[in-house]
Design goal:
Blueprint (H helix, E strand, L loop, with lengths): L5 H42 L4 H22 L1 H15 L5 H28 L7 H32 L8
Helix pairs in contact: 1-2, 1-3, 2-3, 2-4, 3-4, 3-5, 4-5
Length: 169
């Protein structure tokens, strides 16, 4: 058996726990978001004077769209952000993979903010505009990115503080 660092085992356990938590919590959240999006759409249409039978199909499609936007706006990017952070902290892969992970970190935050902003705009009773919603979602994702960046920063400080082994010639 090869010598495997304890950090590698901890990283693997954290990755498995993150994926399990995502798979465990997301179906219930999707159901809730579907009902919220469909109910909001149905209420707006009935309030505008459209008959219930005519409003129901559009409400169903709006509920599905809202649930998909919320999944791509919050739990999926958050899971990816956690996985990317774990991989960056544990220095998994080569330098090329580390650069790719740092770029993916930024892309995941941007996609999460855009999808969350669109989803917020769908169920907002007050029309403040899409840019306002995307901006507020960007603030949320900036908060998550700062927390992840803080963990990455601390891990780099800890890794640099370790004494390096000197090889004898």
């Amino acid at each position: 058996m090869q010598n495997v660092k304890i950090g590698t085992w901890i990283s693997a356990i954290l990755i498995i726990l993150t994926i399990f938590l995502f798979l465990f919590l997301t179906p219930g959240a999707i159901n809730f978001w579907y009902k919220q999006g469909a109910g909001h759409s149905f209420g707006v249409q009935v309030g505008a004077g459209i008959e219930r039978e005519v409003a129901r199909p559009k409400a169903f499609s709006d509920g599905t769209r809202y649930a998909i936007l919320m999944v791509f706006g919050f739990p999926l990017p958050l899971m990816l952000l956690i996985l990317i952070t774990i991989c960056i902290i544990s220095c998994i892969g080569s330098k090329t993979i580390q650069v790719f992970l740092k770029i993916a970190f930024l892309v995941v935050c941007i996609i999460g903010a855009i999808c969350l902003g669109y989803a917020q705009n769908m169920v907002s009773w007050v029309d403040t505009g899409l840019l306002s919603k995307v901006f507020s979602a960007s603030i949320i994702w900036l908060f998550f990115a700062v927390i992840a960046g803080f963990f990455i920063f601390i891990s780099h400080i800890v890794n640099r503080a370790k004494p390096k082994k000197i090889k004898n010639i």
